[in-house]
């Protein structure tokens, strides 16, 4: 198994967090799944099964994040993987010039703050053990044709900010054997609520922008995340893993 004996903290018990946690458990990892809503975490744990523990932690609360991270290390002995996939509270569908400042920068504040806190909390322990993997989900979207079709609010600037943080962390932590990566997709159809306005149009646009006529599934995300977190990917750091099915061609 790719992650046998590894300990992973995943922040966010929604669709992506559950998919990644399921893949990690399947590959032998011990997963600590955390989020703000206990009921959501309990449902996720039921779907995942296996070696998963849940805890109510606000990824925007420095004290809570640090206390939980310390507790995991005390209990499990190490933190080998940290991945933050909490919701960034972005608002889409409104032209930028019609948005309030608060709505536009909301995802930026949430994403940068939470990823700073969770990454630093894990890194402090990973530095001591001289190993570890820190992963984000999203990636830059400036080359995507979708940006010409929809009003994405502060999403693009948020992704760019997180990528800047990822590059900085990769450079500063690489000397300690810590890898820092981003998993990038062109959009997850399964994450769009069935009653979301213009859902079908968005889904078709996602598919149309790819070279393969399909987008990454949640299962794909889990599988690639498990590979990226494993020693099989030990040479990959400081970069995005492109899962856009050709939407972004490097």
UniProtKB/TrEMBL annotation:
<dbReference type="InterPro" id="IPR051122">
    <property type="entry name" value="SDR_DHRS6-like"/>
</dbReference>
<dbReference type="Pfam" id="PF13561">
    <property type="entry name" value="adh_short_C2"/>
</dbReference>
<protein>
    <submittedName>
        <fullName>SDR family oxidoreductase</fullName>
    </submittedName>
</protein>
<comment type="similarity">
    <text>Belongs to the short-chain dehydrogenases/reductases (SDR) family.</text>
</comment>
<dbReference type="InterPro" id="IPR002347">
    <property type="entry name" value="SDR_fam"/>
</dbReference>
<keyword id="KW-0560">Oxidoreductase</keyword>
<dbReference type="InterPro" id="IPR036291">
    <property type="entry name" value="NAD(P)-bd_dom_sf"/>
</dbReference>
């Amino acid at each position: 198994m790719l992650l046998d004996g590894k300990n992973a903290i995943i922040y966010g018990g929604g669709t992506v967090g559950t998919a990644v946690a399921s893949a990690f458990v399947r590959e032998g990892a011990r997963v600590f799944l955390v989020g703000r809503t206990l009921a959501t975490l309990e449902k996720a744990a039921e779907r995942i099964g296996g070696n998963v523990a849940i805890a109510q932690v606000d990824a925007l609360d420095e004290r809570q994040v640090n206390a939980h991270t310390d507790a995991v290390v005390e209990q499990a002995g190490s933190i080998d993987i940290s991945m933050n996939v909490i919701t960034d509270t972005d608002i889409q569908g409104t032209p930028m010039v019609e948005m309030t400042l608060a709505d536009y920068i909301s995802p930026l504040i949430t994403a940068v703050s939470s990823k700073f806190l969770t990454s630093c909390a894990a890194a402090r322990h990973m530095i001591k053990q001289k190993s570890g993997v820190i992963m984000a989900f999203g990636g830059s979207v400036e080359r995507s044709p979708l940006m010409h079709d929809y009003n994405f609010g502060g999403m693009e600037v948020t992704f760019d900010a997180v990528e800047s943080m990822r590059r900085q962390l990769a450079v500063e932590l690489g000397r300690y054997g810590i890898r820092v990566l981003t998993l990038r997709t062109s959009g997850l159809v399964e994450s769009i609520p069935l009653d979301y306005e213009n859902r079908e149009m968005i889904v078709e646009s996602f598919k149309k922008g790819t070279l393969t006529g399909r987008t990454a599934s949640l299962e794909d995300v889990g599988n690639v995340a498990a590979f990226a977190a494993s020693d099989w990917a030990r040479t990959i750091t400081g970069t995005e893993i492109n899962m856009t099915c050709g939407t972004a061609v490097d």
